[in-house]
Amino acid sequence: MLSVFSAPGHYVQGRDATAALGSELERLGIAGPVLIVAGNSAFGLLAAKWDQSLTDAKIAYAVHRFGGECSRGEIARIAAAAGAHGSTAVLGAGGGKVIDAARAVAADLELPMISCPTTASSDAPCSALSVIYTDAGEFEQYKLVARNPALVLVDTSAVARAPARLLTAGMGDALATWFEARTCIAGQVRNMRGGASTRSAGALAELCYRTLLADGVSALTAVETHTVTPALERVVEANTLLSGLGFESSGLAAAHAVHNGLTAAPETRPFLHGEKVAFGVLTQLILEGAPTEEIATVLAFCTSVGLPSTLADLGLAHADRETLSVIAHRAVAPGETIHNEPFEVDATMVLDALRTADALGRG
Fold first, then answer.
1. In the annotation, is 173 catalytic?
2. Among the options 64, 100, 259, 313, which is catalytic?
3. How many C-beta neighbours within 10 Å does residue 139 have?
């Protein structure tokens, strides 16, 4: 099996990075028209800066306001808008679902994709993977596209103004990176790009985890005070770049499968991707029989930054055995990444791990 490492063409991060959007597109030979797929917050925050930067670079653009869910219907609407405007590139601006939808459209139309996250809420921006949901918000499938984004541009001034919960959710998503990567590396399973992990991918995944432990609390304080600090820059890089490279080039395991299982329970719909993934990490560690000290470290981190550590934290305080069984069976569906674990996993094992993780979280 060949080793495969996948990455975006160019990564730019820093305070007021949006001002460089036009010049970065020029440098990459992207002349427009560009379709900007924008979440509501991203539009309100950055519309004037897009206009100035792209106008200065003489790049025509149009804006499509994102419908709220990365579903097949929304992807079709964005594709129609791109066709109507004669777009030669698609830019996703906002959170993970906006970026996932823009990536799916760019792939379908065989256009370059630009990723401009305004939050550090997931590791979606750097990858070639879109998570497709139903219109009701239930996980449907992973869509792996041919190319990573041509450009990822992260404006940490925008990230600092986003709700603190979004940074916390991003840390939950990034928390899974090292634990899933090491499982896939040890089992010599194929990564998201169909190859073996490289040593560099594993090292980036581990650095992601160490950065969260070292800087997570300080970065959260920065966002709560709407300030850009070195700790925030490091955690934004961990949530976005390190986690994105680590998961895609090493692989996913039980934590994300548990997330997908949790989406089957309507009570979890108000909760963010990374919040559910964080509880998936605890469940994975129980499932794998991880050392008590390691589980305690992860649990303490989750508590320190406000990540869910119990079922109640995800709206499932009164979930009965039938509800938890539905979650567990969805987590072990054929093709799920839980089957990258180095042992056979069934729904009963997941159900027990969910209940044990919940009990540990309740202390």
1. yes
2. 259
3. 22
For 315-341, how does the pLDDT look when each residue is reduced to its tens digit (9 = 90+)?
A: 999 999 999 999 999 999 999 999 999
Q: Would residue 259 show up in a list of annotated catalytic residues for this protein? A: yes
Phi, psi dihedral angles at 137 (to 5 degrees): 95, 10
Class level of CATH domain 11-161: alpha beta
- Which listed residue (100, 215, 273, 358) is catalytic? 273
Determine which one of 123, 155, 215, 256 is catalytic. Answer: 256
What pLDDT is attached to residue 152? 98
In the CATH scheme, what is the homologous superfamily, with its name and number, of domain 164-362? Dehydroquinate synthase-like - alpha domain (1.20.1090.10)
Q: What residues does each domain of the chain span?
A: 11-161, 164-362
Place of tokens 């794998």: 288
Q: Which of 100, 123, 173, 313 is catalytic?
A: 173
Active site includes 318? no
**The three-state (H, E, C) secondary structure of 121-165, written as one string:** CCCHHHCCEEEEECCCCCEEEEEECCCCCCEEEEEHHHHHHCCHH
Q: In the beta sheet, which residues pair with residue 196?
A: 3
- In the annotation, is 10 catalytic? no
What predicted TM-score, i.e. pTM, was given to this entire model?
A: 0.92
Structure tokens at 9: 């063409």
